[in-house]
Amino acid sequence: MKKSIRSCKFNMDSGCVELKYWDGSMLAIDCTALENQVAHNRFQRSELDYLIYNDPAAYADLVLNGDVGLYLKTVTEYKFIS
Questions:
Q1: 44-69: per-residue pLDDT in tens?
Q2: pTM
Q3: Which residue, 69, 74, 49, is CA-closest to 59?
Q4: Do 34 and 52 form a contact (C-beta atoms < 8 A)?
């Protein structure tokens, strides 16, 4: 059974997306640590930053239920131009 989320927001002071549940529990996703693990260029970091600031609930859902690496490969296009 999935817990019901009461609120989801990005905390600039801690650099975490914080989820609060109706049962009183809380989960914090360290965005910097996650970016260091999965984002390999500035385009991927930019995509994650967009989600963090504009839709933290979608970011949390992606991290908890999705494949962040596959998502980044799908939505970002990086071409080296010499």
A1: 999 999 999 999 999 999 999 989 99
A2: 0.85
A3: 49
A4: no
**Structure-token match 């930053």, residue found:** 49
The domains of the chain are located at 5-75
What is residue 52's predicted lDDT score, i.e. its pLDDT? Answer: 97
Q: Both tokens of residue 29? A: 């996703």
Q: Which residues pair with 10 in a beta bridge?
A: 17
**H or E element that contains 27:** strand 26-30
Alpha helices (H) along the chain:
31-38, 42-54, 56-65, 68-75
Mean pLDDT score of the chain: 91
In the block, which residue shows the tokens 């549940």? 21
